[in-house]
Design the sequence.
């Protein structure tokens, strides 16, 4: 399934629900939980930060291949931002030392089998992959 | 996310129900404001009916834990569903928040 959302301000919930309701989603609850968590983190990132001045579009696409590999692709034309460039948070620190941010993309990387980013033709393209069978 | 706070002196029994995500994290922050004040708080968060938390929710729990530590209090989360617990494990939050 493919859909482009514009504008996207305050639309995080709606976009996540669309992705989670596409026919490509698996039936298993534990997988759905992991996919939803990941999708919410990355969609929220785009909605909050991609278009600092004004608004723009977010394209979403869900696909599965014959072997149950789910691919979710997010495309936006906001400012170039590689969420994977950030170091992972140090999860061994105490509560006092822990920073408040940086958890979302880390969780996404842990929950998905593969997360890739590229910047192409003026667009941020983020791809999430999860084996669902 | 529905938050029910039962308070007896410095003891708080808090029932968390539903999903904590980007759409309601701000509301949750307001709902738990009573837990952010008072000396030596003794807080139990009953997570039996907590279905989900995103990283925004984790941030709220970290903020609360820091506040509790600063006031020489204690906090514990109980009966967490396995898939929610996994989120706390992966992010190392299980090491900084007591989960029973």
Sequence:
């Amino acid at each position: 399934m493919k859909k482009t959302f514009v504008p996207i301000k305050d639309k995080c919930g709606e976009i996540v629900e669309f992705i989670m309701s596409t026919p490509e989603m698996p039936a298993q609850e534990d997988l759905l939980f992991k996919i939803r968590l990941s999708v919410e983190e990355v969609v929220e990132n785009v909605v909050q930060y991609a278009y600092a001045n004004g608004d723009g579009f977010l394209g979403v696409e869900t696909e599965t291949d014959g072997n149950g590999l789910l691919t979710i692709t997010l495309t936006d034309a906001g400012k170039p931002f590689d969420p994977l460039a950030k170091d992972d948070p140090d999860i061994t620190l105490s509560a006092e030392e822990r920073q408040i941010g940086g958890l979302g993309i880390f969780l996404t990387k842990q929950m998905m089998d593969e997360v890739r980013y590229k910047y192409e033709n003026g667009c941020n393209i983020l791809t999430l992959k999860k084996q669902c069978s | 996310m529905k938050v029910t706070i039962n308070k007896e002196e410095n003891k708080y029994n808090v029932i968390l129900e539903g999903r904590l995500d980007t759409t309601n994290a701000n509301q949750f922050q307001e709902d738990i404001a009573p837990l952010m004040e008072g000396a030596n708080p003794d807080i139990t968060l009953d997570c039996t009916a907590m279905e989900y938390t995103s990283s925004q929710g984790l941030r709220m729990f970290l903020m609360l834990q820091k506040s509790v530590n600063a006031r020489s209090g204690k906090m514990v989360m109980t009966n967490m569903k396995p898939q929610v617990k996994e989120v706390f494990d992966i992010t190392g939050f299980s090491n900084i928040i007591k989960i029973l």
User: Anything to note?
Assistant: The radius of gyration of chain A is 15 Å.
